[in-house]
């Protein structure tokens, strides 16, 4: 019982959301295995879903936005990449279709990957789109700055609208009346207690732990030396060093550190970092106080920021707060807040339940259509 998962590699948010859904679905259907098509790293899926449950294919499934840094996009570079990527060639779709069918996949799950929808259609398999935004909607926000995004947006909109089942997860950017809307953000679940994680990091029980994160990816933080010596607070920074390094009250760890990122979030007394889907979702579930830097110009920012401020009581930082250390001014108030140990909720179960109850996972491969669940076998 295999599922093909086509996942955007734009940041880690799409990969972690898909991984959370895969883990929850496997809990319901233990026979399920996942064929993953993505440029997101194989280790992320392996550590999130479990050994032996995933087969990773390093395939570019979308362009998304070409990035100059985690906080700045390259629009001309994006247009150039889209010109090479779209429209999908018959040879590319047919090659992937053969792989998916050879792996005996029963459906295709796409986290904003348009290529997966095209492959599902060619294979005669049901396609499921999971998103809180789609790339055509993102590109619309740049039309005035980059007219070259208009035609790719039209092409992608047609593909996204052809998915057989459409699921939207909070915070939803553009509600679609025909989509199934999940009431909570989707995130991976913590596995270790906060006490165990802090002990493994060498943090005393009495000290406060502050996680500085841009979603688990590598990032050059400026002015970290200014954090050293602040009494009673230990700062943990994923992606800030090639190996585990402790300097006074600063703990720098590599991108792939052996620490499960949801565990780091849940163990923290406060999280400070770039606003992104995975960080918001994991912080929301953990109930940890959150201060964020909003990514200017990116269309997803406004819905995410609104959700964070209204639903989480999060603090929005000035644009240059991460670089000049201005976020430290918000730290005392952030640490005075009491985390909600239970967390408000997680949408992973809801998405998995939809897939488990509505899709023919335990029958021979068959397609879906707009008017019912069954269509002719391929």
Question: Which architecture of the largest domain per CATH?
Answer: 3-Layer(aba) Sandwich
Return the string of H and E elements. EHEHEEEHHEHEHHEEHEEEEHEHEHEHHH
Question: Kindly state the mean pLDDT as a whole number?
Answer: 88
Q: Count of helical segments?
A: 14
Name the CATH superfamily assignment of the largest domain: Glycogen Phosphorylase B
Record the strand order, biggest sheet: 3-2-1-6-7-8-9
Query: What is the CATH topology descriptor of the largest domain?
Result: Rossmann fold
Radius of gyration: 21 Å
Shape: globular
| Beta-strand content bin | 15-25%
Unreliable runs, pLDDT <50, ≥5 residues?
363-378
**CATH class designation of the largest domain:** Alpha Beta
Total domain units:
2
Helix amount: 25-40%
Main sheet specs = 7 strands, parallel
Question: How many β-strand runs?
Answer: 16
Task: Provide the structure class.
Answer: alpha/beta
What is the straight-line distance between the termini?
16 Å
Tell me what you see in this structure.
There is one protein chain. With 378 residues, the protein is α/β, with parallel strands linked by helices. The protein has 14 helices and 16 strands. It has helices at 13-28, 42-49, 75-85, 90-102, 114-123, 135-140, 150-160, 194-201, 261-267, 277-286, 301-312, 321-324, 331-336, 348-358; strands spanning 2-7, 33-37, 54-57, 67-69, 72-73, 105-111, 127-131, 165-169, 180-182, 208-213, 233-238, 245-247, 250-253, 270-274, 290-293, 315-316. The protein is globular and about 60 Å long. 47% of the residues are buried. The model is unreliable at 363-378 (pLDDT under 50).
């Amino acid at each position: 019982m295999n599922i093909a998962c086509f996942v955007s590699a734009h940041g880690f948010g799409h990969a972690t959301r898909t991984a959370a859904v895969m883990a929850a679905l496997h809990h319901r259907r233990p026979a399920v295995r996942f064929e993953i098509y993505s440029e997101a790293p194989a280790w992320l899926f392996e550590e999130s879903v479990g050994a032996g449950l995933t087969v990773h294919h390093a395939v570019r499934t979308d362009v998304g936005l070409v990035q100059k840094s985690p906080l700045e996009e390259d629009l001309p570079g994006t247009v150039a990449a889209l010109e090479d990527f779209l429209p999908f060639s018959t040879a590319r779709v047919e090659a992937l279709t053969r792989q998916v069918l050879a792996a005996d996949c029963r459906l295709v799950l796409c986290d904003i990957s348009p290529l997966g929808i095209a492959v599902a259609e060619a294979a005669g398999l049901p396609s499921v789109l999971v998103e809180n935004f789609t790339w055509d909607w993102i590109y619309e926000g740049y039309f005035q700055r980059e007219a070259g995004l208009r035609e790719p947006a039209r092409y992608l909109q047609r593909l996204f609208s052809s998915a057989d089942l459409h699921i939207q997860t909070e915070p939803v950017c553009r509600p679609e009346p025909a989509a199934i809307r999940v009431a909570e953000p989707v995130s991976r679940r913590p596995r270790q207690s906060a006490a165990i994680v802090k002990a493994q990091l060498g943090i005393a029980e009495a000290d406060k732990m502050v996680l500085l994160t841009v979603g688990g990816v590598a990032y050059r933080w400026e002015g970290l030396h200014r954090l050293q010596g602040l009494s009673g607070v230990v700062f943990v920074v994923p992606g800030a060093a090639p190996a585990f390094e402790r300097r006074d009250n600063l703990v720098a760890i590599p991108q792939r550190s052996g620490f499960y990122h949801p565990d780091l979030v849940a163990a923290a007394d406060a999280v400070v970092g770039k606003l992104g889907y995975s960080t918001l979702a994991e912080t929301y579930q953990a109930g940890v106080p959150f201060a964020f830097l909003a990514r200017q110009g990116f269309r997803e920012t406004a819905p995410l920021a609104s959700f964070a401020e209204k639903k989480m009581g999060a603090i929005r930082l000035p644009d240059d707060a991460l670089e000049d250390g201005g976020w430290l001014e918000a730290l005392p108030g952030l640490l005075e807040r009491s985390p909600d140990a239970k967390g408000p909720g997680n949408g992973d179960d809801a998405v998995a339940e939809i897939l488990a109850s509505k899709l023919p996972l335990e029958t021979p491969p068959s397609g879906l259509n707009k008017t019912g669940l069954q269509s002719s076998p391929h």
